[in-house]
Amino acid sequence: MRLLKFVFLLFFIGLNSCIQEDIVNDRVPEELRIISSVNALKVGDVVKLHASYFNNIGEKESKTVVWETSNPTVLSIDEFTTNITAKAEGTATITVKTIGVSGELTDSEIIMVVKDDVVVIPSENTKKGTITPTESYDASGDFEVIKTTNGIQIILANNYVADESLPGFALFLTNNPNSLVNALQIDAYDDADGAHYKGAFTYSVNGVGLNDYQYLVQWCRPFSILVGKATITDK
């Protein structure tokens, strides 16, 4: 009788949860990413750009980087302070480089320099993405990520949906969609804490930059199963 009850319990759990084997392959391509970006400066402006290196599990690591300019007469770089100075009108590409496990990694930013009396158009402060399912559960919808004074806002569209049958649903920002290590949880995995499952909704996330994370993902948190994924891209 005890054996029969045990078998029935396993069958019930299998029907009503998202238990499966944990994801083994949690590797992602290592990346060097410019975190603080700018698309236009006025002659005389001085800025400092910042870049972050993410290893092959999406974890940020300290790396020595080198900044270069394609046109030093337009944009110059101080090799000691890494300050970038707008010298003259024109356009230049600023490139950052480092050596990773797989070889040289780079990222670049095209910056336009204009006269002091010209109105500078600010950098794009909005990104976007579309969640798609990775399992047989409901997981879909569009969203925008907007830069704010204190961090970012994630604005889910009307077509957003998450599966309400999932035990312990949670929404995360991450640089590695295959693992919860170093992921930032932005939605509760306990329904009593107010998980959002359908329709438009806005999350305010303080202390996070627009370029800090590359993915927005949905997880069945207690059993560590990825059910929905979106790459955050430029709008």
TrEMBL record:
Transmembrane segments: none annotated. Residues 129-233 form the DM13 domain. It comes from the Bacteria. PROSITE patterns: DM13. This is DM13 domain-containing protein. It comes from Wenyingzhuangia marina. The lineage of its organism: Bacteria, Pseudomonadati, Bacteroidota, Flavobacteriia, Flavobacteriales.
